[in-house]
Amino acid sequence: MDIARQDRSIRPELEAAIGRVIDRSRFILGAEVEAFEQAFAAYCGVAHALGVGSGTDALQVALLACGIGPGDEVITVSHTSPATIAAIELTGAGAVPIDIDPRRFTMDPGRIAAACTPRTRALLPVHLYGQPADLGPILEFAARRGLPVIEDCSQAHGARYREKSVGAWGRIAAFSFYPTKNLGAYGDGGAVVTDDPQLAERARQIRQYGWDAGRVSRRKGINSRLDEIQAAILGVKLRRLEGWNAERRRLASMYDSRLTAKTLTTPYAAPDSIHVYHAYVIRHPRRDALRAHLAQRGISSAIHFSPPVHLHPGFSNLAGFSAGLPESEAAAREVLTLPLFPGMREDELQQVVDAVTAF
User: Fold this and answer.
1) Number of other residues whose CB lies within 10 A of the CB of residue 279
2) What is the pLDDT of residues 178-191, one digit of tens each?
3) Contacts by 294-298 with C-beta closer than 8 Å and gap 24+?
């Protein structure tokens, strides 16, 4: 992707926003963070948003706010960024990965019940590649068991499930503003969103040493704060997000109609959802050969994600779940992300199509 191309038209606004921060000389949790938190909460359709230092931190803060800690288990997926699992383990809890729906690439609701134990304390679905997880049955199961649903929305800014924004369905949710996200900062950043005022206050305290308004630590906390410059940048970009997402969908539709080879599978767009195509991910049984073919023609591609987290050496404690994750492992062998970003030209897209078709 080409971030500079996407942002070129708004550079004067970005520079003015950064200039405001420099002029104020207030760089942490000031007016820009407050304004962005209010705007992002409204965009997501929730009452509260809290800026934090990264998407991983957002997940950790959300989990801690829900009381997740040592000895607890959180059901999630392995076909995701390692950040999802890392955030769970940072609380002292254990991650229990279950398999994915091979079309959505997200949590298979039919696998949840078998993974539950007396130590299960939360469900953490991941909205992957811009596609919402199938939240309906996930939320129904969670309600029957009295479990909070914590949404990982790090790749799904603006995506909707049954006409409501992701992040507004569960008890609490986490977003990442890593530079390559649909809504990206010029560095790390993240946000926790929720409709629950008590959870919001807990999260607000946890992100800064457990402090209350008088700077007295009322609980254990961490140091994870969205800085003013990143908030100012995000505030400018948030106003363009719907347009950029529409452009992503337009480009994805062009790919869908032109990539007709029977040997590959184009992304599934669930009829109950609005996909925002953070990544345009195809499947092909000879993925590595296809990727090499594209590279020889000057076309970049990426693999999101391989191997699945339970097969990373750093997460060897999850290796025992391997037998129950065949769809996750199959996806990891076959997925390939093709170029797609706001500002991409049609002739560039056609160049990719022609190269894939030739293979």
Assistant:
1) 23
2) 999 999 999 999 99
3) 294/352, 294/355, 294/356, 294/359, 297/351, 297/355
Angstrom distance (rounded) from CA 91 to CA 77: 17
- pLDDT tens digit string along 65-113? 999 999 999 999 999 999 999 999 999 999 999 999 999 999 999 999 9
Q: Give the residue extent of every domain in the chain.
A: 3-238, 241-358
| Residues β-bridged to residue 208 | 223
- Identity of residue 158: G
Distance of CA 182 to the CA centre of its chain: 10
Q: How far apart are CA 118 and CA 352, in angstroms?
A: 50
Q: Whole-model pTM?
A: 0.97
Q: Domain 3-238 belongs to what topology? A: Aspartate Aminotransferase; domain 2 (3.40.640)
Domain 241-358: assigned CATH number: 3.90.1150.10
Structure tokens at 238: 């948030």
